[in-house]
Amino acid sequence: MEWHGFRRALRDGTNEGLQPWGRSSIAPITTLHYLVVAAALFVLGVIGVLTRRNVVIVLMSIELILNAVNLNLVAFSRIWGLHGQIFAIFVITDAAAEAAVGLGILIAFFRNKETVNVDEINLLKW
Amino acid sequence: MQPIATTFFFYFLSALTVLSGVLVITRKNPVHSALALIVALLAQAALYLMLYAPFVAGVQIILYAGGIMVLFLFVIMLVNIEQSQREEQFNKQWIIGLASAIALGALFVFVFAKSKSLFPDRGISMPEGSNTQQVAVLLYGNYMFAFEIASLLLLVAIIGAVVMAKKRI
User: Fold this and answer.
1) Where in chain B are the domains?
2) Contact residues on chain B for A107, CB-CB shorter than 8 A
3) Model ipTM?
4) CB-CB: which of B91, B96, B158 is closest to A53?
5) What number does CATH give the domain B1-82?
6) Does the model's pTM come out above 0.90?
7) CB neighbours of A44 closer than 8 A, spacing ≥ 6?
């Protein structure tokens, strides 16, 4: 136990000097780690939405984005209470509704045009 | 005291999630994408378990990996994927899309690097055993109205999916 670090932490209100393992190099997993993973998933989902042509894979990329947001919410619920988990459950409900309606639209679209290419959906395009 | 298994499992599950996400957006066959997405969702459920959220992890496995992904695979079987596999997989604006997504990632990195002190390391201690009970108390207490609205949303989604997918009403 580093007594000076502990006293500095008590005085300054930071845990900068507190290292449970002394001079060990393995950093503990913090909330920021989870946020970085969620940001990577979010960026992957955005890339999928913006670059793929297959509608099914675009919908799967939207699921990736929603999951990244869920990971953020649950990671923050570690700090500020259970409300983030409740919101994550609501987001999962929304994802289920979105997948059902989106795949229904996809089936209707495929019946009319015989393709799953997202560039062919251009009737409302200016 | 930080146990070493936490660090190992965090990096393992994160790498599994991100690699499966890369596979989702790069595979040509949509079935392979769906299977990679299932792996990503299961690894993320394990990450929820590491964050002391067992109820959300269970909901994730049952609803996502069990429900939504079966729906996806079913629709992939319904549409004709042979023709779409022969076509070009990425659209013409893929350079702009990739650049804007990378700009978004750079924004994330910038915000996280700047606001490191905003996110405290030590959370409140939450007992894992009564997690489901506490979630239920919040869900049927504070969030009662939102819960009912969610059930209405699911009803609308059911009717909408049937109306969209049915050939003739």
Assistant:
1) 1-82, 130-169
2) 75, 78-79, 164-165
3) 0.89
4) B91
5) 1.20.120.1200
6) no
7) A61, A64, B18, B21, B22, B24, B25
